[in-house]
Write a structure and sequence with these properties.
This protein is of the alpha/beta class and 271 residues long. The chain has 2 domains: 1-79 and 168-271, P-loop containing nucleotide triphosphate hydrolases (Rossmann fold, 3-Layer(aba) Sandwich), CATH 3.40.50.300; 82-166, P-loop containing nucleotide triphosphate hydrolases (Rossmann fold, 3-Layer(aba) Sandwich), CATH 3.40.50. Helix content is 35%, strand content 23%. The protein has helices at 40-47, 70-77, 95-100, 111-117, 123-135, 151-164, 181-198, 209-215, 238-245, 248-254; strands at residues 2-11, 14-24, 29-34, 55-60, 63-64, 80-83, 169-173, 201-205, 218-223, 226-232. Strand 4 and strand 5 form a beta hairpin. Helix 5 (123-135) packs across helix 6.
């Protein structure tokens, strides 16, 4: 599904990604963790085409992303959905109108795109949007304004909007950062449902370690622009987490993770 091969990126002379390589299989559900500035958000934005690598390649379903060709980049991004920390919704619009805008990401140029861009959607698109709102548990809120929804409900709308694009790969950049623990668990359960029921590959950037432990099997950890761990969450020992984060606050959180002495995944880990 996704292949990242030796990508590098620098900003203002600072190397943010140092030859990162990553392979994600179709229908995997992956958490990406690491300290602020470790490079995880830059990597995800590169996968989605927002950041151009200085070196290396990114391929989705075997097709390399051509960052220098606007049309090829647009075609690549049609296959990739994005969920944001701050939802990126139009608060004064209804939930269904917000979901419908997700269809714009998969439309080619022409009358279909033009009519949709001014809010004129065919009946089948509206029916699909309603189905997706039911899928995320907001079927009865379809015609309610977004500014009247809770944070968790807004994130559900954002997930439905991303699904409206019919992506092969779904990227979520800290989707629970502004939510309480109970709501966060529900959102991660919903993303797991998206992954399992719709067969969509999901990569989620997270900071809450407890959420990672309870919701994911595979975790990718980044540190100083490199991947320092890629394996099963059950094999991620507290001392490795301390090496990844290296702060007292994170150390307290880390101690709740299971202590397992052997790694059976065969994937890269911190020595």
């Amino acid at each position: 599904m996704l292949r990242v091969d030796k990508v590098k990126k620098s900003f203002n002379g600072r190397e943010v990604l140092k030859g990162v390589s990553l392979n994600v299989k179709e229908s995997e559900y992956v958490a990406m963790i690491g300290r602020s500035g470790s490079g995880k958000t830059t990597l995800v934005r590169m996968i989605n085409g927002f950041v151009v690598p200085d070196a290396g390649t990114v391929s989705v379903k075997g097709v390399p992303i051509n960052y220098r060709n606007s049309e090829e980049l647009r075609q690549a991004r049609k296959r990739i959905g994005m969920i944001y920390q701050l939802f990126n919704l139009v608060d004064r619009s209804t939930t269904i109108d917000n979901v419908l805008t997700g269809a714009l990401g998969r439309k080619d140029r022409g009358f279909d795109l033009l009519s949709s861009s001014i809010g004129i959607f065919p009946r089948e698109e509206k029916e699909k949007a309603l189905e997706l709102l039911k899928f995320v548990g907001l079927g009865e809120r379809a015609y309610q304004r977004v500014d009247r929804l809770s944070g968790g409900e807004k994130q559900r709308v954002a997930i439905a909007r991303a699904l409206m694009q019919e992506p092969h790969l779904l990227l979520a950049d800290e989707p629970i950062a502004n939510l309480d623990p109970k709501t966060s668990k529900k959102i991660l359960d919903l993303l797991r449902k998206v992954n399992e029921d719709k067969g969509i590959t999901v990569i989620t950037i997270l900071h809450h370690l407890e959420s990672v432990k309870d919701s994911f099997d595979r975790v990718v950890a980044m540190k100083e622009g490199t991947i320092c761990y890629d394996g099963n969450i059950k094999d991620l020992q507290p001392n490795w987490m301390n090496d990844i984060y290296g702060t007292e606050d994170e150390e307290k959180e880390v101690m709740t993770l299971p202590r397992i002495t052997a790694n059976s995944t065969g994937r890269k880990q911190i020595a």
